[in-house]
Design a protein that fits this description.
With 580 residues, this protein is of the alpha/beta class. The chain has helices spanning 4-15, 24-35, 40-50, 54-63, 83-87, 90-101, 146-150, 180-185, 190-196, 200-210, 222-233, 253-260, 262-276, 290-305, 336-343, 372-381, 391-397, 423-430, 464-469, 488-502, 508-526, 533-547, 551-555, 558-566, 574-577; strands at residues 75-80, 114-119, 131-133, 136-138, 161-163, 239-244, 280-285, 321-326, 367-371, 400-407, 413-418, 440-445, 451-452, 478-483. Helix 12 (253-260) runs parallel beside helix 14 (290-305), helix 20 packs antiparallel against helix 21 and helix 22 (533-547) runs antiparallel to helix 24.
Length: 580
């Protein structure tokens, strides 16, 4: 190895503690960062060190959108074309940028200086339209500001949060997120120290009585996961995994939580590890969140230096190590078993279930996996100096929810508000009402995999019971608002394009279904619907929901099926509607 970059990469490979397949994705990302792409010789070197065949290495490279096996450019400009950014003009911005730089989409300039390409959702929906320059986020981009983007003049997104009587966001304005001293001064690690004094059964009882449900979308009782992993493990090896790979269009709460109060997430992970007896954990942060990832890396270092990670934590006899892993641009890795596969150094394909993660998860061992919001809530629930937390206090602690509000809204951002607030009050009273037009056209609840909300339910209370009664779901807390100038068919093209792009292709119903529903919706938008399109969309949607392997395929048609129900006339031919 002759040059400096080669020497640095060689030192990195030598530093990898586990010279096995599980280090594959970190090695590929390091090579990508250093060299701009992963050459054949680099892939062979990685394979020889980790014991992975070259063919399998290229299979992993091709799976992730942030990895390249061909030379790229010094500056890669990525423009988000997912639903909210698209509706706010990102395709026009990308076209103008390509023309300005005299480039083709996804093709490097002859001098190797620039490359421009489309990407899917970047988790910057509260700042749409958005993009990335290399690994740095750019927000509220415009055609008028293209020179600034080219010249590297842009600022990081604000991580805005609003609410009343906050629980999860209460420290946001009172701490330096990197300061463990600030965190402790504001009550941090109180929950962990409290947990150290209690038995595992007592800890699970506290979580059970709190009523805490997972905040990743499925709303599964957190205590059941913990008890299941504990019972499955016996005295064997177990793992804790924090899923911070939010890639759902409309979702950005992980980005803000990790940027504003990261130690609370770490504390929740520690408490969960204590409950199930895990000595090793991983936090998997999406590849597009470089700033949050770098910050959390420093948080881990600070926790280790201050005795909150490692051996015999605070003299308790409890051992726990946490490793940070980065994604590389694959929505499917937000699915828990696909995330396990990614950590294990494979393509992020979902696994068949059962067995479920609490029985056979990461590396085939019992695993408790939760998302950022859930772990942060766990730290609050346990955060009391009392020997016993009373039931009413527990209910209050688990009684708020993070909502990601974006779209045609005057004040987009993250909102922490009590369960039960009405949807329309959140939009009007907190979000400032609709922007760009006088009236709301429609609302999507739950993100791209959620549903359009019929107008008669715009005043519905945002709690699990009320929503379930009318066939809606809060999902991960996404609320996307669209004004009356928007065409529902445009929104649906962007959503179905997203799922067609992100389908991993492992199961046939999703692979074919996402592509076919996109083809039909594009045809409906550009011309009149054909006879039978209405029925075909319903058949595709129901088949995907019933037969797909994982949540991506099972929910990829949710928004479309809800639109078909609310606006059937948009999807029927003149012959079907009786209009000639």
């Amino acid at each position: 190895m002759g040059n400096k970059k080669d020497r640095v990469f060689g030192e990195f490979l030598n530093s990898i503690s586990e010279k096995s397949r599980t280090s594959l994705l970190p090695a590929l990302l390091e090579a990508q960062e250093l060299f701009g792409y992963i050459s054949e010789s680099t892939a062979e070197l990685i394979g020889s060190v980790l014991g992975v065949p070259s063919a399998e290495i290229y299979g992993v490279i091709e799976f992730y959108s942030l990895l390249y096996s061909k030379p790229t450019a010094d500056t890669i400009i990525r423009i988000c074309t997912s639903p909210l950014c698209s509706l706010k003009g990102s395709y026009k911005i990308k076209k103008a940028l390509l023309e300005k730089l005299d480039l083709e989409d996804g093709v490097s300039s002859g001098d190797g200086l620039f490359m421009v390409e489309s990407v899917q959702c970047l988790g910057l929906c509260d700042h749409a339209p958005s993009g990335m320059v290399n690994n740095k986020s750019i927000v509220n981009i415009s055609i008028e500001g293209l020179d600034d983007i080219i010249n590297g003049k842009y600022s990081a997104p604000e991580n805005r949060a609003f609410g009343t009587n906050p629980v999860l966001t209460e420290r946001f304005d009172r701490i330096d997120p990197e300061s463990i001293a600030d965190f402790i001064r504001e009550g941090g690690f109180t929950g962990f120290h409290h947990a150290l004094t209690l038995s595992r059964d007592n800890l699970i009882d506290i979580v059970t009585n709190s009523g805490l449900l997972g905040r990743g979308g499925a709303a599964f009782p957190t205590a059941l996961k913990e008890r299941g992993a504990l019972e499955a493990s016996g005295t064997g090896e177990t793992y804790i995994v924090c899923n911070a790979d939010e890639s759902e269009p409309g979702t950005f709460k992980d980005r803000i939580m990790l940027s504003r109060d990261p130690f609370s997430v770490l504390e929740g992970i520690l408490i969960s590890a204590l409950i199930i007896g895990a000595e090793k954990g991983y936090i998997y942060i999406r590849g597009e969140y470089q700033d949050a990832r770098n910050l959390f890396s420093r948080v881990i270092e600070s926790a280790e230096a201050n005795g909150y990670l490692g051996k015999d934590i605070k003299g308790s006899g409890f051992n726990f190590d946490l490793e940070l892993r980065s994604g590389a641009g694959a929505y499917i890795c937000g699915e828990e078993t696909a995330l396990f596969e990614s950590i294990e150094g494979k393509r992020g394909y979902p696994r068949n279930k059962p067995p479920y993660p609490v029985v056979s998860g990461l590396f085939g061992k019992p695993t408790n996996i939760n998302n950022v919001e859930t772990f942060s809530y766990l730290s609050r629930i346990m955060g009391s100096n009392k020997t016993k937390i009373i039931d009413s206090e527990l209910k209050t602690l688990s009684g708020t929810r993070l909502f990601c509000l974006s779209g045609d809204i005057k004040r987009p951002g993250l909102y922490e508000l009590p369960f039960g607030i009405s949807l329309i009050d959140l939009i009007n009273d907190w979000g400032g009402g609709v922007s760009g037009s006088d009236n709301i056209k429609t609302i999507i609840l739950g993100g791209a995999s959620g549903s359009f909300v019929p107008e008669e339910h715009w005043n519905i209370a945002l709690d699990q019971e009320s929503l379930r009664a009318v066939g809606l779901s809060m999902g991960s807390g996404v609320i996307m608002v669209f004004n009356e100038s928007r065409d529902v068919r445009d929104i649906l093209v962007d959503i179905t394009r997203f799922f067609s792009h992100e389908s991993c292709g492992k199961c046939y119903p999703c692979q074919l279904g996402t592509r076919k529903q996109l083809e039909i919706v594009e045809k409906i938008r550009s011309a009149a619907p054909s006879l039978g399109d209405f029925s075909r969309l319903e058949d595709i949607g129901f088949t995907m929901k019933d037969a797909s392997l994982c949540g991506l395929g099972q929910t990829a048609s949710s928004a479309l099926l809800s639109a078909v129900k609310i606006w059937p006339e948009l999807f029927k031919s003149g012959e079907e509607t009786g209009v000639k």
